[in-house]
Specification:
Arc Repressor Mutant, subunit A; three-stranded antiparallel beta sheet; 3 strands; disordered N terminus
Length: 120
């Protein structure tokens, strides 16, 4: 493929996030969140169920089904409860209700765009 061909493809492609308009903090946060495989599975699962609350047990089951490295459901659930979901809540991309043990995706413009490509 020549440079002209690849440049033409880039000019025609207009989907996805405009990363040049994002600040470094936003980019770093999104890539950091997606850089961990288990967090990526959680975010992809929640992204595909936008507008729906999932119980943390249901989320653990869905992650277990997707993650080839996850062997034990209890370990997945503990990891979600103690590490992954609090981190995602602290970063403002999920709402975590500890009273009902449910989680809902909130996302953000860049994260939504990146997840759309990943689950595409």
């Amino acid at each position: 493929m020549s440079n002209a061909d690849s440049e033409g493809e880039l000019e025609e492609w207009n989907g996805g996030p405009n990363v040049s308009a994002m600040d470094d903090r936003t980019l770093n946060q999104a890539f950091d969140l997606l850089g961990n495989q288990r967090r990526r599975y959680v975010l992809e699962t929640l992204y595909t169920t936008v507008g729906t609350e999932l119980s943390t047990d249901d989320l653990a089951d869905r992650v277990l089904a997707r993650d080839p490295d996850a062997l034990d459901r209890d370990r997945v659930a503990v990891g979600l409860h103690h590490r992954i979901l609090p981190r995602l809540a602290d970063d403002g991309v999920v709402e975590l209700d500890s009273g009902t043990d449910t989680v809902r995706y909130r996302g953000g413009e860049l994260l939504d765009d990146l997840l759309a490509v990943l689950v595409g």
